[in-house]
């Protein structure tokens, strides 16, 4: 089962895979980021109620979506690492964590900055923002646990266990916070019902989401390459690669 | 090989921890004292005005319960790790999750149970309504084992580290939030003399899930910390 | 039936803190054999023992016990394994007798009354009911070593069992080793003692200190 | 283009402060993360090169001893 996956368990093949994927992600990110921001900031029509303050949506929603997306992909990598003992999956968990934490931080800052004009207060204990804050705690937990171990191998495995425990708790936390306080406006784009946002605003938003996803991809690939080199620094292929000055 | 009797292992690990606790009285008394002190801090901080205290009582009792469980968690695996009996537990023919279950149950009997028994006294301190008393005791009865299970995961992850104490609370507190939300809301609804069965049911469900999944996470975390 | 050797170590590699301790190390151990692992401090003797007893996972390679990788069904392997490391696994607050009984129950053996006379055989007469923290380091190790008499695990993995033991203790231990080998058990140990005089068929494995 | 002039664009209908605060902080975080990852990469490569040089020196010292 999954025979095509096995060659990438070897570190060198995984390293080359990162190299081949890198240009595609980079191009998508640069293009979508510029188009998305320019379109969102300058060309998208103003909202009739919030006028121009709603433009923050073009980075708040993508970063919120990506913070959840990054955590679930980190948890999937953690499960692969624990079940099939694939070392590269552990390295992937460690590379995704800081990027996910950054996305959550962006979502929190933009949420607060958007909340001030809309609800009149910088921080509102609204369900979505509180879940986002707890998600940031989970990320920081994984990162600080990883850096607390000297031996990198057991550090990776401990971080994977915490990531899996975190992902099991994520829906429970989300449900309980949602139940505890529903102040946030309904979901602007949900897959199920028609989106409550006009198509002229929807397109820049989608482009921004792709741009942020591309960015998460690029930085994760860079960090994964670092982790692989760090872990294999004794191997001849790393020395020869560094010798060539790549 | 002698016949495998899981009960023999469970009871032996459980009674070892409990006898150790009774030999060092401080292990039982400290968390309770801490619970009492934290509870008395709040009226000093926010003023003795009964109506306000009554309103704050569920939250204060539960935050204090949370913190004193955390206090007791650090020693859960630390001593066994230091003197090597944790290795012996791993290298035993019985599954590690069973001995972990016994240890968490022992931890609950040492820190959780006294809290449940003392809860009526603390509720009086915060002059909580009498009908809310039942809810407080019930939520603590179901909630404290849940806190022990989740906390034991954090303890197992950080047992090998010198400065593990603070890190453990950073890992475990976010996971405590759902328990805190449902327990305090159960007490709130009961103080308005409404039915609080729903919140208790959710707490019970969380406890059931934790008692099945937590030992697996704890034993794999212990195996990582020992390696 | 092909006699599979009791323990096989297949090309095991271990790196610790960016230093490669040993690379693709392979050897095997048959029933009735004793093997001593020698090497300077820091050569990775303890790490090797911990990998073989399943506490640590090697970077590469596998450990097979009776033809089966130990990671598949670790509990079955643990039933046949007796591990005594640097840390004795004895709790200071409990008494020597309680420690022994607890260890026996955790390892699924019947608590028999021989524990008492074995403690006295090992020179702990009168000290059975005293908290172990009041005993000396050598006496604490003897409380741990009592397990060798009370357990019928096939494979013994001992990390410097002779430390802090006096002459009489060392001799008693060597007699017990030969009894165990006679019954078809296997012993893997690290020590700085010279065992060749006592055990003719001693296998040795030397680990150098690698940069 | 929704805005007639540049400073109207900057004003963002009166919410300029909040819009530019969020876009600025977002850009800052993304840039910081990207730059720090690249810096880790080059730091790692230098470490491996230094390690290779150190081993060269040790080997040379050993040869001198034997000669």
UniProtKB/TrEMBL annotation, chain A:
InterPro entries: Cyt_c_assembly, Cyt_c_biogenesis_CcmC, Cyt_c_biogenesis_CcsA/CcmC. GO terms for biological process: cytochrome complex assembly. The chain crosses the membrane at residues 21-44, 56-84, 91-113, 133-149, 161-181, 201-224. The keyword Chloroplast does not apply. It comes from the Bacteria. Its main location: membrane. One of its GO terms (molecular function) is heme binding. It is a multi-pass membrane protein. Keywords: Cell inner membrane, Cell membrane, Cytochrome c-type biogenesis, Membrane, Transmembrane, Transmembrane helix, Transport. The keyword Transmembrane applies. It is found in: Cell inner membrane; Membrane. Pfam families: Cytochrom_C_asm (PF01578). Residues 8-184 form the Cytochrome c assembly protein domain. Belongs to the CcmC/CycZ/HelC family. NCBIfam families: ccmC (TIGR01191). Required for the export of heme to the periplasm for the biogenesis of c-type cytochromes. PANTHER family: CYTOCHROME B_B6 PROTEIN-RELATED (PTHR30071:SF1), HEME EXPORTER PROTEIN C (PTHR30071). This is Heme exporter protein C. The gene is ccmC.
UniProtKB/TrEMBL annotation, chain B:
One of its GO terms (molecular function) is heme transmembrane transporter activity. It is a multi-pass membrane protein. The chain crosses the membrane at residues 28-47, 105-125, 137-160, 166-188, 200-222. It comes from the Bacteria. It is found in: Cell inner membrane. One of its GO terms (cellular component) is plasma membrane. GO terms for biological process: cytochrome c biosynthetic process; cytochrome complex assembly. Keywords: Cell inner membrane, Cell membrane, Cytochrome c-type biogenesis, Membrane, Transmembrane, Transmembrane helix, Transport. It holds the Pfam family CcmB. InterPro entries: Cyt_c_biogenesis_CcmB, Cyt_c_CcmB_bac. Belongs to the CcmB/CycW/HelB family. NCBIfam families: ccmB. Required for the export of heme to the periplasm for the biogenesis of c-type cytochromes. This is Heme exporter protein B. The lineage of its organism: Bacteria, Pseudomonadati, Pseudomonadota, Gammaproteobacteria, Alteromonadales.
Automatic annotation (TrEMBL), chain D:
Keywords: Cell inner membrane, Cell membrane, Coiled coil, Cytochrome c-type biogenesis, Membrane, Transmembrane, Transmembrane helix, Transport. Residues 38-65 form a coiled coil. It is found in: Cell inner membrane. GO terms for biological process: cytochrome c biosynthetic process; cytochrome complex assembly; heme transport. It holds the Pfam family CcmD. The keyword Transmembrane helix applies. It is a single-pass membrane protein. The chain crosses the membrane at residues 15-35. Its main location: membrane. GO terms for cellular component: plasma membrane. The keyword Metal-binding does not apply. Belongs to the CcmD/CycX/HelD family. Required for the export of heme to the periplasm for the biogenesis of c-type cytochromes. This is Heme exporter protein D.
């Amino acid at each position: 089962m999954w025979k095509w996956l096995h060659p990438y368990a070897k570190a060198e093949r995984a390293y080359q895979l990162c190299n081949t994927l890198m240009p595609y992600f980079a191009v998508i990110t640069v293009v979508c980021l510029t188009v998305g921001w320019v379109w969102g900031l300058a060309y998208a029509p103003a909202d009739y109620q919030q006028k121009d303050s709603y433009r923050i949506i073009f980075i708040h929603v993508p970063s919120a979506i990506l913070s959840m997306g990054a955590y679930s992909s980190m948890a999937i990598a953690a499960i692969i690492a624990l079940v099939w003992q694939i070392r590269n999956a552990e390295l992937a968990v460690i590379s995704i964590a800081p990027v996910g934490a950054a996305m959550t931080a962006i979502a929190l800052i933009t949420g607060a900055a958007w909340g001030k004009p809309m609800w009149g207060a910088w921080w509102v204990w609204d369900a979505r923002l509180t879940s986002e804050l707890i998600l940031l705690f989970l990320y920081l937990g994984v990162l600080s646990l990883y850096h607390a171990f000297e031996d990198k191998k057991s550090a990776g495995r401990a971080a994977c266990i915490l990531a899996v425990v975190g992902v099991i708790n994520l829906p429970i936390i989300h449900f309980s916070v949602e139940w505890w306080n529903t102040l946030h406006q309904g979901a602007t784009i949900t897959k199920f019902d028609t989106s409550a946002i006009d198509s002229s605003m929807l397109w820049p938003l989608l482009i921004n989401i792709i741009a942020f996803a591309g960015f998460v991809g690029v930085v994760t690939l860079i960090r994964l390459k670092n982790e692989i080199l760090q872990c294999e620094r004794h191997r001849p292929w790393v020395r020869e690669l560094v010798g060539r000055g790549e | 090989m002698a016949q495998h009797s899981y009960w023999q292992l469970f009871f032996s690990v459980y009674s070892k921890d409990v006898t150790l606790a009774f030999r060092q009285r401080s292990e039982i008394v400290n968390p309770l004292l801490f619970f009492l002190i934290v509870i008395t801090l709040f009226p000093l901080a926010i003023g003795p005005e009964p109506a306000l205290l009554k309103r704050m009582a569920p939250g204060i009792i539960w935050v204090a319960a949370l913190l004193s469980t955390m206090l007791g968690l650090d020693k859960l695996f630390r001593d066994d790790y230091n003197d090597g009996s944790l290795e012996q537990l791993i290298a035993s023919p019985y599954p590690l999750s069973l001995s972990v279950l016994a240890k968490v149950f022992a931890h609950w009997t040492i820190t959780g149970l006294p809290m449940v028994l003392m809860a009526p006294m603390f509720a009086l301190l915060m002059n909580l309504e009498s009908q809310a008393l039942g809810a407080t005791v019930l939520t603590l009865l179901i909630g404290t084992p849940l806190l022990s299970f989740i906390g034991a995961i954090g303890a197992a992850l950080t047992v090998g580290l010198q400065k593990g104490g603070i890190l453990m609370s950073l890992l475990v507190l976010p996971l405590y939030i759902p328990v805190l939300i449902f327990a305090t809301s159960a007490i709130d609804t009961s103080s308005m003399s409404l039915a609080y069965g729903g919140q208790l049911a959710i707490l019970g469900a969380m406890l059931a899930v934790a008692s099945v999944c937590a030992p697996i996470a704890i034993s794999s975390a212990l195996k990582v910390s020992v390696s | 039936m092909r006699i599979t050797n009791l323990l096989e170590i297949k090309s095991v590699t271990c790196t610790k803190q960016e230093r490669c301790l040993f690379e693709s190390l392979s050897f095997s151990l048959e029933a009735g054999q004793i093997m001593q692992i020698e090497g300077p401090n820091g050569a990775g003797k303890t790490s090797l023992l911990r990998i073989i007893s399943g506490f640590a996972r090697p970077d590469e390679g596998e450990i097979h016990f009776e033809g089966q990788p130990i990671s598949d069904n670790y509990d079955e392997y643990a039933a046949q394994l007796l591990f005594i490391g640097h840390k004795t696994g004895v709790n200071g607050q409990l008494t020597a007798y309680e420690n022994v009984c607890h260890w026996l129950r955790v390892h699924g053996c019947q608590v028999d009354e021989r524990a008492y006379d074995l403690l006295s055989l090992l020179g702990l007469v009168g000290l059975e009911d005293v908290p172990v923290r009041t005993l000396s380091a050598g006496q604490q190790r003897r409380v741990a070593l009592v397990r060798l008499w009370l357990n019928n695990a096939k494979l013994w993995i001992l990390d410097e069992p002779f430390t802090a033991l006096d002459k009489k203790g060392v001799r008693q231990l060597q007699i017990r080793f030969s009894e165990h080998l006679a019954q078809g058990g296997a012993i893997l140990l690290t020590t700085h003692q010279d065992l060749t005089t006592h055990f003719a068929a001693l296998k040795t494995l030397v680990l150098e200190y690698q940069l | 283009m929704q805005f007639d002039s540049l400073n109207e664009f900057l004003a963002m209908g009166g919410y300029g402060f909040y819009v530019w605060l969020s876009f600025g902080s977002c850009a800052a975080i993304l840039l910081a993360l990207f730059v720090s990852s690249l810096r880790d990469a080059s730091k790692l490569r230098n470490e491996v090169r230094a390690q290779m040089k150190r081993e060269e020196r040790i080997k040379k010292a050993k040869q001198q001893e034997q000669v």
